[in-house]
């Protein structure tokens, strides 16, 4: 499902940070922060690509702006469950889960006054594929659309259902077809949506501002008159800005600064578990780590829980399977059982297994991006050294890492550390990260699996029956935990800090929904 390797995208491989220089953007922080004026200042932790057309944009931080300018056919509520927005209710499902008929609310309008119609929704579903954008893979299961009338749309999938369709795909962000197709380039930096805010001002690589729409079609009316988004990828700079009142809220609270801000008199912290999966994968294609006993030995050699507690305890939680806990809450896979199956910290067992199954002088190469995953790699190397082995840790820039880990070559690595962010469906983790079709694309472990392993993942994608999908996925997850082609590490939290005059701000599990400024469950204001 992943076609590019951008550092941060809506559903992508997770790199370690943005490439923008702090010196470029440091002067953009502040303005009327500290509660002055009517503008709410929100400081993002990474720079935007400045693409605001939902059909084109695949950048989480541009999408944080998009989600306030546009409405979706369905949208995430407080958690990861879709709720109708432009849709009048749940779709009618026919043809064994391959046909969806959507009815739209009447009276929803775009910022230019045009009514939102079924043609606009159809265009939003099909344009990513027709235009071969980076989002094409999110919609390429759609075979055709048929506009029944202005308020009814029929969407037909291929011969097979697509399992995640009802949990995520139908939450498409809706664009006005006529305005967008008239000048797509202009639309990308001056978009027209149907959401509660309108696009106001863009100074590329500096800030983007949106303002409250006075004639919003929905009953919700934002409390905030104007919002300015700025980016500051320097952790210390963001923390300094929120402490000094130079901004109203920041995203991405560093673990080491959590307690500092927690004790700051005029600052409030916000946190929500996200659907991220940080992991260490083993080379199952060639070399010593093709042996599951070697993989188990390495997992026994260090304590993942101790590492998380000491390095990320404020902003991350342990994982015990490739399905993030916030997603597991929806599906109820037996996470406690998986935790029991994972190797616990046992250096004597680690040494015994390596002595028996690893070659003499075994010193595996671990490749990793910088940041916390590099710290984890160094912790593993230290613990292996303590039992007479060790590891060669190579910290690579993201582009080099991608080129290297997809090779499956034992001369390049035995382990690599990466992360992935998905949605509320197991498919978003199991298919791209473990199905054989993605070997060498999104994965470098080349795990062959047991008989039926890959077929079960494919069958789960091509089923609309959620119980059937559960029954297919559970043995797959259990096998991953037992055989360890990838060792689950931790899931990250979406964190924010705000000044105490900011009211009703909440962190959302989905990073693109932050800041969640106006919804049924929250309407942010400054007092």
TrEMBL record:
- GO BP, sorted A to Z: peptide transport
Q: What is the lineage of its organism?
A: Archaea, Methanobacteriati, Methanobacteriota, Stenosarchaea group, Halobacteria
Q: Which PROSITE patterns match?
A: PROKAR_LIPOPROTEIN (PS51257)
Q: Give yes or no: UniProt keyword tRNA processing.
A: no
InterPro entries per the UniProt record, alphabetical: Peptide/Ni-bd, SBP_5, SBP_5_dom
Molecular function terms, GO-annotated: peptide transmembrane transporter activity
Q: Does the keyword Transport apply?
A: yes
**One GO location term (cellular component):** periplasmic space
Domain Solute-binding protein family, first and last residues per copy: 81-438
This one is known as ABC transporter substrate-binding protein
Q: Which organism is it from?
A: Haloterrigena alkaliphila
Family per record: Belongs to the bacterial solute-binding protein 5 family.
**What keywords would UniProt list here?**
Signal, Transport
């Amino acid at each position: 499902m992943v076609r590019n390797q951008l550092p941060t995208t809506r559903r992508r491989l997770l790199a370690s940070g943005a490439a923008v220089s702090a010196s470029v953007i440091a002067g953009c922080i502040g303005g009327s922060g500290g509660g002055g004026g009517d503008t709410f200042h929100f400081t993002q932790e990474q720079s935007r690509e400045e693409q605001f057309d939902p059909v084109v944009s695949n950048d989480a931080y541009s999408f944080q702006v998009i989600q306030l300018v546009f409405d979706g056919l369905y949208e995430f509520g407080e958690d990861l469950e879709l709720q109708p927005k432009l849709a009048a209710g749940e779709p009618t499902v026919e043809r064994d889960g391959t046909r969806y008929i959507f009815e739209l609310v009447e009276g929803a309008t775009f910022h230019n006054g045009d009514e939102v119609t079924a043609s606009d929704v159809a265009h939003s579903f099909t344009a990513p594929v027709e235009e071969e954008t980076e989002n094409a893979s999110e919609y390429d299961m759609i075979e055709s659309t048929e506009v029944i009338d202005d308020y009814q749309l029929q969407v037909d999938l291929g011969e097979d259902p697509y399992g995640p369709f009802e949990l995520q795909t139908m939450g498409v962000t809706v664009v006005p077809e006529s305005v967008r197709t008239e000048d797509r380039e202009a639309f990308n930096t001056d978009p027209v949506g149907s959401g509660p805010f309108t696009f106001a001002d863009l100074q590329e690589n500096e800030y983007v501002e949106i303002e409250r729409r006075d004639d919003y079609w929905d009953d919700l009316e934002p409390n905030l008159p104007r919002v300015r988004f700025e980016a500051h990828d320097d952790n210390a700079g963001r923390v300094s800005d929120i402490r000094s009142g130079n901004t109203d809220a920041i995203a991405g609270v560093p673990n080491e600064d959590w307690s500092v801000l927690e004790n700051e008199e005029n600052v409030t912290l916000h946190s929500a578990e996200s659907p991220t999966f940080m992991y260490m994968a083993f080379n199952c294609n060639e070399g010593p780590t093709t042996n599951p006993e070697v993989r188990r030995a390495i997992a026994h050699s260090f304590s993942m829980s101790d590492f998380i507690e000491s390095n990320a305890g404020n902003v991350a939680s342990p994982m015990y399977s490739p399905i993030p806990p916030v997603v597991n809450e929806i599906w109820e896979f037996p996470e406690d059982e998986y935790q029991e199956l994972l190797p616990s910290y046992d250096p004597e067992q680690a040494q015994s297994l390596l002595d028996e199954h690893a070659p003499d002088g075994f010193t595996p190469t671990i490749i990793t991006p910088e940041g916390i995953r590099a710290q984890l790699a160094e912790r593993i190397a230290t613990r292996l050294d303590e039992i007479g082995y060790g590891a060669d840790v190579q910290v690579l820039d993201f582009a080099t890492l991608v080129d290297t880990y997809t090779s499956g070559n034992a001369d390049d690595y035995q382990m690599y550390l990466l992360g992935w962010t998905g949605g509320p469906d197991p498919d978003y983790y199991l298919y791209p990260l473990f199905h054989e079709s993605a070997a060498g694309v999104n994965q470098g472990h080349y795990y062959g699996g047991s008989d039926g392993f890959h077929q079960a993942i494919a069958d789960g994608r091509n089923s609309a029956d959620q119980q059937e999908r559960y029954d297919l996925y559970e043995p797959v997850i259990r096998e991953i935990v037992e055989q360890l082609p990838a060792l689950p590490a931790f899931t990250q939290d979406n964190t924010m800090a705000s000044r105490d005059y900011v009211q009703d701000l909440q962190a959302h599990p989905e990073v693109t929904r932050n800041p969640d400024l106006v919804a049924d469950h929250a309407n942010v204001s400054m007092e």
